[in-house]
Automatic annotation (TrEMBL):
Residues 34-303 form the Ppx/GppA phosphatase N-terminal domain. SUPFAM superfamilies: Actin-like ATPase domain. CDD domains: ASKHA_NBD_EcPPX-GppA-like. The lineage of its organism: Bacteria, Pseudomonadati, Pseudomonadota, Gammaproteobacteria, Alteromonadales. It comes from Idiomarina zobellii. InterPro entries: ATPase_NBD (IPR043129), GppA/Ppx_hydrolase (IPR050273), Ppx_GppA_N (IPR003695). Signal peptide: none annotated. This is Phosphatase.
């Protein structure tokens, strides 16, 4: 007798965090939708290990291997019918990619695909649509550790997408080294973020949007701070004030806003500067937060493959 359900696992090796989703999907019905059973997340900060030569250092590689060994143990217990694993911007950039992939695949026991920026953007859009009602024109922004994806779409279809060479870990290290926060560093980081999206502004504006949805850690951190402070709308004006308040604190360690998780403090400033630069360049006044991201898109893709 054919199985009525299959167990699936999807791993997203992001430049800041690694995620493991374990799910099951029904093999009956026309529209298979995976049901997530367990989520595992670990801060690895792979992009923290990138040096000027784009080599990922041994410390970051060790953190990654330790995380993947833990994921391998979870998979051994779960016994999935299908597994998919992707790595994103940090490994895309790494000059020692081949050596690292061998280490990481040995630790995990599964092949790892290093996806392109375009593939990453498509998966992010799919992941956002899997949890949010994307029925009209939307703009999706995902600020990762080493890249930022900005996708204009309609309903379930991405229409225009870019993967930009900036991320919260990279910007944190570049503009706020030593954990020092000040207004001039924020302004420089924001200006550079805006300049990276500037060549594509006309293309984005040709694909108008009614809603702006933010995915992943920076947006969740902003949302959690806003909620804790009773801020009901996420606006560019409030974001600007939050950056000024960060600069006034002076250091990363001094950041103590209500709702700010300890594990997010280290890269908050880098993410805020990117978000401020993008919202200013695209003239975005308000935005929302979605809890779908690349990993949900990856899981949806896997479910479609195994039920085809």
């Amino acid at each position: 007798m054919a199985l009525k359900k299959k167990k699936l696992a999807a791993i997203d090796m992001g430049s800041n965090s690694f995620h493991l989703l374990m799910a099951e999907v029904s093999m009956t019905g026309f529209f298979p939708k995976p049901r997530v059973l367990t989520r595992h997340k670990q801060k690895v900060r792979l992009a923290d290990g990138l040096n000027a030569a784009n080599t990922i250092d041994d410390d970051a590689a060790k953190r990654a291997c330790q995380c993947l060994l833990g994921f391998a143990s979870e998979l051994e217990q779960f016994q999935p019918d299908a597994v998919t694993v992707v790595a994103t911007a940090a490994l895309r950039k790494a000059s020692n990619q081949a050596q690292l992939l061998e280490q990481f695949e040995n630790a995990l026991g599964h092949p790892i695909q290093v996806i392109t920026g375009e593939q990453e953007a498509e998966l992010i859009y799919s992941g956002v649509c899997s949890v949010s009602q994307c029925t009209d024109d939307v703009l999706v922004i995902d600020i990762g550790g080493a890249s930022t994806e900005v996708i204009a779409g309609h309903g379930l279809s991405p229409k225009y997408l870019q993967s930009l060479d900036m991320g919260c870990v990279v910007f944190q290290n570049r503009y706020f080294s030593g954990g020092i926060l000040n207004n001039s560093s924020f302004e420089q980081a924001k200006s550079d973020a805006a300049s990276l999206i500037e060549p594509f502004l006309n293309d984005y504006h040709q694909h108008s949007w009614k809603r702006v949805l933010g995915a992943s850690g920076t947006f969740r951190a902003v949302s959690e701070i806003a909620h804790a402070e009773g801020q009901t709308q996420l606006t560019r004006e409030w974001l600007t004030e939050l950056m000024k308040r960060c600069a006034k604190k002076g250091t990363v360690e001094a950041l103590d806003f209500p709702g700010l998780r300890e594990d997010r403090k280290a890269v908050l400033a880098g993410g805020l500067a990117i978000l401020a630069g993008i919202t200013e360049a695209l003239n975005i006044e308000e935005f929302e937060v979605t809890y779908g991201a690349l990993r949900e898109g990856l899981l949806a893709q896997l479910a479609n493959e195994v039920t085809a």
